[in-house]
């Protein structure tokens, strides 16, 4: 048997630990790489192909050149940004948070999710989360040694079954991990659904972590309500958001947590040993972004709603079954009308077939049946890019 000099110094034990086994490369990296090698239009990974407001980019450049934030900023985030986050929660939702004790700035929502789960979970704790899952949830729950318990959102409506949620709660359930507006399905929880979730959380003494990074990407008549604004929830909810999606600067990685002083202190403890601090100058720019006038947020939404309609109509014409999202910048489709049975195989072949990249939702489900034929497309791209993609997808007919 052949051994390399490298293998010789290692044991038979797999290098990747058991908690992360099978988590390989994220589907977004895999599909974005495929888009590059095949020269395809990338409607897979959710990042805009135009940057956010020019004056906000200028604010970041000014901060760098003025030497603001170029050295380690304060661990909880710069005071200007913490204040702007607190003002944002008050302005949009009437929620009052103390910028000094109830706000924590993180390296994107991704770190906020990781730090929250690593701080709040013991090995063996159960975490209930909607599936299809955002992929970092499964990884972070695993890194915390906890157990994920999926509540499956099923086509065509993708509403949570609240009786099923009740039935999933056990004495080991520690935490509900919510995502509304929900990536990838575009489901925005209604007030009735939020109320039911809140009542269950209170009845069973559960913590809730809510990922609300798409809070401003919601289409009328749907509206976003933070779970923390419901009775009994302010004290048990860790609310997470980020500048990436709202302001079209996904590379800046400025996120935040709002919660009680006790919860923020717990999350900060984990956060300080993950990244310590991040993105100093961008924190100044995001503080300005959060104070943009209402017209920015309304204009962004109107623009996205138009793109959603453009892509939805095009996908329907191309032969997909289209599930209209209430929020986010994703559309989930079904490929069953083409006689296709495997979303992953379909997405692997799609660049060769018509020069477009999409994401198979099937990889975000534990229940492989439920998502087997679902494929996600993003519409956060320029109109001419969406129009060209739709034209190309017409070849599937
Ligand atoms: C994009 C996204 C994130 C990550 O946000 P960052 O601020 O880029 O870390 C978290 N949750 C969901 C549901 C997302 O779609």
Automatic annotation (TrEMBL):
<protein>
    <recommendedName>
        <fullName>Probable N-succinyldiaminopimelate aminotransferase DapC</fullName>
        <ecNumber>2.6.1.17</ecNumber>
    </recommendedName>
</protein>
<comment type="pathway">
    <text>Amino-acid biosynthesis; L-lysine biosynthesis via DAP pathway; LL-2,6-diaminopimelate from (S)-tetrahydrodipicolinate (succinylase route): step 2/3.</text>
</comment>
<dbReference type="GO" id="GO:0008652">
    <property type="term" value="P:amino acid biosynthetic process"/>
</dbReference>
<dbReference type="GO" id="GO:0030170">
    <property type="term" value="F:pyridoxal phosphate binding"/>
</dbReference>
<dbReference type="InterPro" id="IPR051326">
    <property type="entry name" value="Kynurenine-oxoglutarate_AT"/>
</dbReference>
<dbReference type="Pfam" id="PF00155">
    <property type="entry name" value="Aminotran_1_2"/>
</dbReference>
<comment type="similarity">
    <text>Belongs to the class-III pyridoxal-phosphate-dependent aminotransferase family.</text>
</comment>
<dbReference type="InterPro" id="IPR004839">
    <property type="entry name" value="Aminotransferase_I/II_large"/>
</dbReference>
<dbReference type="InterPro" id="IPR015424">
    <property type="entry name" value="PyrdxlP-dep_Trfase"/>
</dbReference>
<dbReference type="GO" id="GO:0016212">
    <property type="term" value="F:kynurenine-oxoglutarate transaminase activity"/>
</dbReference>
<keyword id="KW-0032">Aminotransferase</keyword>
<comment type="subunit">
    <text>Homodimer.</text>
</comment>
<dbReference type="GO" id="GO:0005737">
    <property type="term" value="C:cytoplasm"/>
</dbReference>
<keyword id="KW-0808">Transferase</keyword>
<dbReference type="InterPro" id="IPR015422">
    <property type="entry name" value="PyrdxlP-dep_Trfase_small"/>
</dbReference>
<comment type="function">
    <text>Involved in the lysine biosynthetic pathways. It catalyzes the transfer of an amino group from L-glutamate to N-succinyl-2-l-amino-6-oxoheptanedioate (N-succinyl-2-l-amino-6-ketopimelate) in a PLP-dependent reaction, yielding as products N-succinyl-l-2,6-diaminoheptanedioate (N-succinyl-diaminopimelate) and 2-oxoglutarate.</text>
</comment>
<keyword id="KW-0028">Amino-acid biosynthesis</keyword>
<keyword id="KW-0963">Cytoplasm</keyword>
<keyword id="KW-0663">Pyridoxal phosphate</keyword>
<feature type="domain" description="Aminotransferase class I/classII large">
    <location>
        <begin position="41"/>
        <end position="392"/>
    </location>
</feature>
<dbReference type="InterPro" id="IPR015421">
    <property type="entry name" value="PyrdxlP-dep_Trfase_major"/>
</dbReference>
<dbReference type="GO" id="GO:0009016">
    <property type="term" value="F:succinyldiaminopimelate transaminase activity"/>
</dbReference>
């Amino acid at each position: 048997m052949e051994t390399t000099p490298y293998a010789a110094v290692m044991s038979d034990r797999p290098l990747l630990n058991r908690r992360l086994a099978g988590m390989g490369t994220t589907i977004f990296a895999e599909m974005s790489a495929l888009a590059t090698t095949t020269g395809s239009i990338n409607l897979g990974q959710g990042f805009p192909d135009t940057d956010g407001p020019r004056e906000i980019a200028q604010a970041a450049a000014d901060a760098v050149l003025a030497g603001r934030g170029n050295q380690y900023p304060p661990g909880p985030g710069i005071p200007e940004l913490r204040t702007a986050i607190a003002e944002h929660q008050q302005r949009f939702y009437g929620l009052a948070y103390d910028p000094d004790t109830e706000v924590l700035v993180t390296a994107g929502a991704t770190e906020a999710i990781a730090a929250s789960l690593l701080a709040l979970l013991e090995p063996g704790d159960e975490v209930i989360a909607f599936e299809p899952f955002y992929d970092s949830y499964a990884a972070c729950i695993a890194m915390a040694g906890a157990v994920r318990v999926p509540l499956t959102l099923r086509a065509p409506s993708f509403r949570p079954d609240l009786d099923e949620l009740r039935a999933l709660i056990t004495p080991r359930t520690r935490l509900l991990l919510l995502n509304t507006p929900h990536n990838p399905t575009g489901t925005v929880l209604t007030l009735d659904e939020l109320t039911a979730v809140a009542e269950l959380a209170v009845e069973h003494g559960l913590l809730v972590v809510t990922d609300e990074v798409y809070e401003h990407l919601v289409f009328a008549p749907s509206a976003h309500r933070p779970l923390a604004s419901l009775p009994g929830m302010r004290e048990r909810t860790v609310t997470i958001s980020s500048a990436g999606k709202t302001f079209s600067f996904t590379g800046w990685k400025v996120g935040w947590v709002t919660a009680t002083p006790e919860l923020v202190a717990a999350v900060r403890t984990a956060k300080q040993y993950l990244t310590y601090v991040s993105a100093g100058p961008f924190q100044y720019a995001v503080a300005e972004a959060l104070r943009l006038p209402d017209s920015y947020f309304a204009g962004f939404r109107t623009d996205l709603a138009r793109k959603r309609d453009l892509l939805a109509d095009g996908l329907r014409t191309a032969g997909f079954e289209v599930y209209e999202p209430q929020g986010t910048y994703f559309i989930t489709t079904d490929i069953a009308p083409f006689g296709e049975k495997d979303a992953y195989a379909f997405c692997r072949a799609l660049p060769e077939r018509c020069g477009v990249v999409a994401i198979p939702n099937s990889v975000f489900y534990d229940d492989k049946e439920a998502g087997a034929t679902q494929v996600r497309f993003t519409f956060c791209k320029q109109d001419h890019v969406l129009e060209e993609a739709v034209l190309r997808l017409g070849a599937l007919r």
